[in-house]
Give the backbone structure.
Amino acid sequence: MTTIAFIGLGIMGSPMAINLVKAGHTVSGYNRSPEKARPLADAGGRAAESVADAVTGAEIVALMVPDSPDVQHVLTGDDGVFAHAAPGTLVIDFSTIRPDVTRDLAAEAAGRGLRYLDAPVSGGEAGARNAALSIMVGGEPADFAAARPVFDALGRTVIHVGPSGAGQTVKAANQLVVAATIEALAEAVVFLRAYGVDLEAALDVLGGGLAGSAVLAQKRANLLGHSFEPGFRIALHDKDMGIVTSAAREAGVVLPVGALVAQLVASANASGDGALDHSALLRVVERLSGSDRP
Amino acid sequence: MTTIAFIGLGIMGSPMAINLVKAGHTVSGYNRSPEKARPLADAGGRAAESVADAVTGAEIVALMVPDSPDVQHVLTGDDGVFAHAAPGTLVIDFSTIRPDVTRDLAAEAAGRGLRYLDAPVSGGEAGARNAALSIMVGGEPADFAAARPVFDALGRTVIHVGPSGAGQTVKAANQLVVAATIEALAEAVVFLRAYGVDLEAALDVLGGGLAGSAVLAQKRANLLGHSFEPGFRIALHDKDMGIVTSAAREAGVVLPVGALVAQLVASANASGDGALDHSALLRVVERLSGSDRP
Amino acid sequence: MTTIAFIGLGIMGSPMAINLVKAGHTVSGYNRSPEKARPLADAGGRAAESVADAVTGAEIVALMVPDSPDVQHVLTGDDGVFAHAAPGTLVIDFSTIRPDVTRDLAAEAAGRGLRYLDAPVSGGEAGARNAALSIMVGGEPADFAAARPVFDALGRTVIHVGPSGAGQTVKAANQLVVAATIEALAEAVVFLRAYGVDLEAALDVLGGGLAGSAVLAQKRANLLGHSFEPGFRIALHDKDMGIVTSAAREAGVVLPVGALVAQLVASANASGDGALDHSALLRVVERLSGSDRP
Amino acid sequence: MTTIAFIGLGIMGSPMAINLVKAGHTVSGYNRSPEKARPLADAGGRAAESVADAVTGAEIVALMVPDSPDVQHVLTGDDGVFAHAAPGTLVIDFSTIRPDVTRDLAAEAAGRGLRYLDAPVSGGEAGARNAALSIMVGGEPADFAAARPVFDALGRTVIHVGPSGAGQTVKAANQLVVAATIEALAEAVVFLRAYGVDLEAALDVLGGGLAGSAVLAQKRANLLGHSFEPGFRIALHDKDMGIVTSAAREAGVVLPVGALVAQLVASANASGDGALDHSALLRVVERLSGSDRP
């Protein structure tokens, strides 16, 4: 079993760290707001006092924080991982951040004798709790192999997709597809409702054919019940769409629907729905159509 | 068992008519180009000489033709169904056409003592061959119940979604979702390829999480192999997106992504890819990005 | 001077008919709501009792009504123009309607020995009052020449753009460009306001360079003052964008921005702003951005 | 008269520097490729050997370079402006770059006792040659007043739009409006051509009404003649649209049409048209519509 530091114990990080404890690993967790470390401590982990405290003695340092600057701060800050991790430590960044930032950090890690994997996840809070995440990993094959037991304790679909940064690229593509699928379903729902169709029956048909998707299966209740407890928050998906569009620009790739969906997610966020589940894109379409829920 | 006239024996209609024969029904099929009736005849059906010939003696008249004007012509023409069907005959239109045209034709049918269901399908050629279609039905519940054995011989998901026209409305919503999902995946593929990610692995991850969809499962080989034999043709999906956008306009519903995707499907059609599978939306994204397949 | 029947005395038609009186023509005006004929009568025209009454004795029959079905009704109805106009009468349709409907009506007119020009206008209520409209005319050159004195009493830019229907096509293109320009300016205004820039100074710069436009010059006060008295109503522009998108679809032309702008105009309409000036597209952008006017 | 260093003597910078000479100023110009300094030298300016050489003794340092990193390099590099400019020197950055980078550089300049204006321009090569640029200036009013003689030698519309960065913000808004206007006209042209309308007459009408714009006046010949010599290059407009979309994201502003137009400009660039005038957006619309120029 492995000694693991886990930095970032939020809605995703906390259940992930707990699943690592359950799998038999020794886990020291750190979170800026210390009360968020309590569930981990209750589950048998240790609440560390600082990043340095968590990292000391760890063979693997896992991160799950919101955005690129957070990862940069946790890794390169004075009290950061790079300053305190022993040579040879394997850093696994589960956060979803910009692929170019990932590549820079991986290079800096290598320069300090550390190993680095980017391993963003998909599957939301439910996936984190149920150890059913999809994990898309970029980095050296040997490091991937070494991290395999950790990944297997957290996810169901664990795939090495390429060199450093590739995990983030695949995650970006994932978020593009997810947002577009939610938006398409939201538009379909508003359309069907306007025509007075039996919406439950209609979604049954859609779900049984080529229009079927994991989004439809998992977000159906949200769309039908107009209930948007996260799940995965609009504010985070908005951040991710910023990654998608800037990464596409860097690569000279044209994403007309991706760019438009990014604007609609930004609209959800700007309209004050940032804390709702991303299925609340439905509310953007409803506002555009001047329709409120009956 | 039932005596059925089947008008329109194309890529979809022919295997559907054959499945009705296999289910024990007596089927007279008619197609404008008579050679398309041969597979039905070989399977034990009868190749009719005309719509009138097919319709005479039929308890159920099924249609599967390309567009609104075709349905209008087959039903209301001088040699049409309405002119030759016996009172009480149940007309089932499997074609995908405009909901408002459907409602008008259903009203006219009622005026002539005929019964009418709109029953557009989803699932493509494979679904038609394997009797695995999704069928979304609009019309009277009693007529739906009467047609149930026919539907069950053709599809796996058969759902009554509302009154006359509702089937078409749901089909329009289905086509919106399918096109948007294909487009999103096409954008993801071009994005991932630009970053040199392992594309097969990446699609495995996407397919295993919230980005998973029937489109990804069924069109994956097309996208990876850049092979676009239909399946479901761009030209037909273009027609369907015209139905979606005009029906949305009629209902005062705003579909930003639907409208944009409609333009991209129109672009595929305008660029000469009308006869390819709708997964050829990938080629639109590639042209926009100035990338050809390696 | 000419005897003219003028059907449709609304916000546009009334000042146009009055300008024809001022130019010395004999004008009989008809409007469904008879009180709308009063300004014309006060200006020296005649308020007719019916279409037939207006048309009888007229050398030219002018129409200015809202939409395709209105034109069809006024022309082909039992009390309509075609039923009462003397052979050789020149029908001039100033309405903005679908090019295909125009071509059908022109053909029907020709079959009855009537002449027909489509002559949609641009310039709004101010242009109508000040005889400063742009008029885009489709039809026979000889008919255009004959109608020239009428056009010159109404507009400043009067151009024959092609055969029957061409006027409507150019008007559709005009409405596409105008809506897109308003939308782009609306987005610029919300963007500039978010950055706390001196908005008046900023619009001065934009107006002085390549971003300058008639829209900016004429709608600047609306955008700055957030005052949206029409001008040209959103509901009419929404109708026009429906013409643009369906005409583009018919011609196999792909208009990504046109299609998206059409959705945004539809959103303005669906949100209850149909009676406001089309510069109220600003309110759609504000809603999307979650910003109200300070 | 003033002693001016001018860094960046490209398609825009060279005629601007020459106009400063013509206005009686003493100008030392520097360009990385030294042969580009020849026209300035021929016109009576001095070709400097290095940034340091140009800056030494200058009261004003003007920059006109392509992008944010270029400005950063010229200002903050070892051989850069900040290292060699005397305290009190006024730096005027005519480049179009990110507003946030501008604000950072202005702060750094202030820390070194330098004054700083951002003064991006609009009007293209022709505007630069004819001293007819629009100049949008951000910074201290006193610095703006001091720079006035320089601005007046270069532009016709010179406006102080706010504090540091405001010039860049207004320029971003300008580029958004210009690109959207070009795209709308390009779509209109393809639409009109598909209908066989007299295109010159049609553009006359559009130009005479609410669809009229500086873009239509100045780019009409490009659109009609399908000739795309710059003018203002697609590659630069693509860079600018990246600034627009990222600045909008930073401010939480939703720009649906801006985002889509950015993708279309990116498509022009990705398709190999980066060196053409931005009116070559027409070619994107033509490719989408499968139409080549007749």
Notes: DSSP finds 14 helices and nine strands in chain B.
